[in-house]
Specification:
624 residues; mainly alpha
Length: 624
């Protein structure tokens, strides 16, 4: 046997008659030559079996990697061995051209088959190759510490499988098998010099998947002209849809595609970069261009919050975006994201300036009926409350744009609070101050001074309540601010009480128990009746919107008025009892005053006017 494989390549001369009759032998083959020839023969058998160019072959409808995974492993091994044989014969000095032609023909047939299998795997597993399944598979694989605990089922695992291992394939994660098969085929084709064909198929199929995914998410390419012509309600709907699509696309489609490219083409950095860039760049450009288009539209305060939503969406996912699009060839996508943030930030700063200007330019000359909360107060405070939901984003947007004031804010706004460390607090406090200054001017629209103070009390109370009940607003302005302005509300309420009820207080004698004549007593009763009825009629339509403040105001009035009137009433009621018409003169019992006062400050839903014929008899006493 040894002589068969290792005899000399040239014949030895011999004078023996028996040997001289043997014809000259052909060049002797080495052991490696024989082994390589055997590799070609084995490969020829299997590759020919699965040759997809044979129209009559059942391989037209059967997938090697799906229907016969054991043979798929052997197929890849045969291709690898065939490649080794080709390298061997190319480098051999004594090589038959026929062998190389045969090997090359087989390699072309094998690559054609692998192209078909690669395409089939990509097409059949569109739903199984998303970010969630891909990342789960990668995590599962990384946790496998030994071959025994690993459940690898790819054709790249060239060890023989037992029946138990084949059964375990069915329980493997749905994305793990196609991922490993794709990688095995890609490695094989790239190694054989057919990477271009493999990459072309991958790009076509996966880009189609990406485009289809964005289409179903409602992402469409738009121009600035189209966006600018949209009605705000339509554009707002587009923004809402984009916000949802952006999160899904970045975290699922782009992320999943990057993972898949990195895994399938792990042997070539340039190929995986090229694939990911060509598959994702157009979709990413379409997706990332939209926020910048919105930012370039006409600005108005109503667009503020959707603009902040766009900024926050990009900002929140920026670490993922930088990681996914880290290739140099995808730097344009990162630039689009940065430009979107810049333009959105500029839009937010402009809209906040416009919002402040709108407050200052409010020239409505109609006083709010009953001294209630002004619509401007409600609008501004609701707007500011919503703004504080974006405190972190606003801090980022205004980080390099501090508020410049000609004079610093009053100390009462912050007390010991270090405003320099919180520029957003300064901006919010400034907006509130602009509003309060505007309200001071609107209070002058009331001809009745008491009503103007009631208006200020109502509106400042609304502002304070909004800030107190908002965690973000209270944090930004602080307890000191709230306490200071709560005191001011009480001050306004006290001014209303003094100005609005001073005439009623003055209608009674300073000393209600003093000994005076019946004529003087009658005079005081008449004064009181006229003053009380005038004030009651006027204030029956006034309102205090905050229930706690309303009760406090009425209690204050009652404590000052009712005890004095009760003393005067009890002192002179008996002396006037015998005189004719005393019931029409003494119209109000002390208990009735409490009832009347309790009906005030509810606005138009209040009690209305006091009847001049009101009797103090128990049958006509008012109850609530």
């Amino acid at each position: 046997m040894r002589n068969l494989f290792f005899r000399s390549a040239s014949p030895s001369p011999s004078n023996s008659p028996s040997r001289s009759t043997i014809p000259p032998s052909s060049p002797r083959r080495s052991f490696s030559d024989s082994l390589m020839e055997e590799n070609i023969e084995v490969a020829q058998t299997l590759i020919t079996k699965w040759d997809s160019s044979d129209d009559s072959s059942y391989t037209k409808i059967i997938s090697l990697f799906r229907d016969d995974r054991r043979e798929a492993k052997l197929y890849l091994k045969c291709v690898k061995d065939l490649q080794s044989a080709m390298h061997h014969f190319v480098n051999s000095q004594e090589t038959s051209a026929e062998k190389l032609i045969t090997a090359q023909t087989l390699m072309q047939a094998a690559m054609k088959r692998l192209e078909k299998e690669f395409y089939q795997i990509l097409s059949d597993n569109r739903e199984n190759l998303d970010a969630e399944t891909v990342s789960s598979s990668r995590s599962s694989e990384s946790r496998a510490s030994t071959p025994r605990t690993s459940t690898r089922s790819s054709v790249s695992d060239l060890e023989s499988e037992s029946e138990d291992e084949s059964t375990a394939l069915e329980g493997e994660h749905v994305s793990h098998i196609p991922m490993e098969d794709l990688k095995s085929i890609a490695d094989c084709m790239i190694s054989a010099g057919y990477g271009k064909e493999c990459v072309k198929i991958y790009k076509i199929v996966r880009k189609s998947n990406m485009d289809e995914a964005l289409y179903h998410l409602g992402v469409e390419k738009m121009t600035l002209s189209q966006v600018q012509k949209m009605d705000w309600n339509v554009l707002e709907t587009k923004i809402k849809n984009w916000l949802n699509a952006f999160k899904v696309t970045v975290k699922t489609h782009f992320y999943g595609e990057r993972l898949l490219c990195d895994h399938v083409f792990s042997t070539s950095d340039s190929i995986r970069e090229s694939c990911f860039t060509e598959i994702s760049k157009e979709a990413a450009t379409t997706l990332f261009s939209f926020p910048e288009l919105v930012a370039k539209c006409k600005k108005s305060p109503e667009k503020m919050f959707r603009t902040l939503d766009l900024y926050q969406a990009i900002s929140d996912l920026w670490p993922e975006i930088e990681s996914i699009f880290s290739f140099e060839s995808t730097s344009a996508v990162r630039s689009l994201g940065v430009n979107s943030l810049i333009k959105l930030g500029e839009a937010v700063r402009t809209m906040l300036e416009d919002f402040e200007a709108a407050i200052q330019k409010d020239h409505s000359k109609t006083a709010v009926p009953a001294g209630g909360v002004h619509p401007l107060t409600r609008y501004v405070m609701n707007y500011i409350t919503f703004l504080t939901d974006y405190t972190e984003i606003l801090a980022d947007i205004f980080a390099d744009y501090p508020l410049t004031l000609q004079t610093p804010l009053p100390e009462a706004y912050f007390g010991c609070y270090d405003v320099d460390e919180s520029p957003i607090s300064v901006r919010i406090a400034w907006l509130v101050l602009v509003l309060l200054c505007k309200l001071d001017g609107k209070a002058e629209l009331y001809k009745d001074v008491a009503l103007s103070y009631l208006f200020l009390a109502n509106n400042l109370q609304y502002v304070v309540a909004k800030i107190r009940n908002s965690t973000n607003l209270k944090y930004l302005l602080g307890d000191y601010w709230v306490g200071k302005h709560e005191s001011k509300v009480k001050q306004y309420a006290g001014n209303y009480e003094r100005m609005g009820w001073s005439k009623v207080y003055a209608s009674l004698p300073e000393n209600p128990t003093a000994d005076i004549s019946s004529d003087q007593a009658k005079k005081y009763f008449k004064q009181f009746n006229a003053a009380f009825e005038e004030v009651y009629k006027k204030q029956s339509t006034w309102v205090v919107t905050d229930s706690k403040l309303r009760d406090e105001v009425k209690v204050t009035v009652a404590k000052k008025l009712v005890p004095v009137y009760r003393e005067f009433y009890e002192m002179h009621r008996v002396g006037l009892r015998k005189e004719c018409g005393v019931d029409s003169l003494v119209r109000y019992a002390p208990g009735n005053l409490d009832n009347y006062l309790s009906d005030l400050l509810y606005g138009d839903s209040g009690a209305g006017s006091v009847s001049s014929s009101f009797s103090t008899s128990s049958s006509s006493s008012r109850g609530r």
